[in-house]
């Protein structure tokens, strides 16, 4: 079972730095409160199911489970940490 570590608050990046890095590295992601969020447009239900199943598999491997909001043609992914 993976071990978890806690990150001291002082080690967290300032919000403006998070936004700057996201704009460069992950431009489709946004900051929403204490979380990161992205909407993936899938074009239809089959694509939505494939995206959700892929995220589910990767989340299990990483031992980090995002919040998923599922709709017919899109998936909203919200990532947060208990340390933030």
Task: Kindly describe this structure.
With 84 residues, the chain is of the alpha+beta class. The protein is 35% helix and 25% strand. The chain contains two helices and four strands, in the order H-E-E-H-E-E. Strands 1-2-4-3 form a four-stranded antiparallel β-sheet. The longest helix is centred in the middle third of the chain and has 18 residues. The chain is globular and about 40 Å long. The two termini are 22 Å apart.
Give a short overview.
With 84 residues, the chain is α+β, with helices and mostly antiparallel strands.
Summarize the SSE layout with pairings.
Layout: H1 15-25, E1 30-32, E2 35-41, H2 45-62, E3 67-71, E4 74-79
Antiparallel strand pairs: 1-2, 2-4, 3-4
Multimeric state: single chain
Most strands sheet: 4 strands, antiparallel
Number of strands: 4
Class from secondary-structure proportions? alpha+beta
Strand proportion: 25-35%
Low-confidence stretches: none
Note the main attributes of this structure:
84 residues; 2 helices; alpha+beta; 4-stranded antiparallel beta sheet
């Amino acid at each position: 079972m993976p071990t978890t570590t806690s990150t001291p608050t002082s080690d967290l990046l300032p919000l403006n730095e998070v936004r700057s890095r996201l704009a460069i590295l992950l431009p489709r992601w946004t900051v929403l409160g204490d979380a990161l969020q992205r909407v993936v447009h899938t074009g239809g239900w089959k694509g939505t199911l494939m995206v959700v199943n892929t995220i589910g598999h990767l989340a299990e491997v990483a031992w980090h489970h995002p919040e998923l909001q599922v709709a017919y043609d899109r998936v909203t992914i919200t990532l947060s940490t208990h340390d933030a």
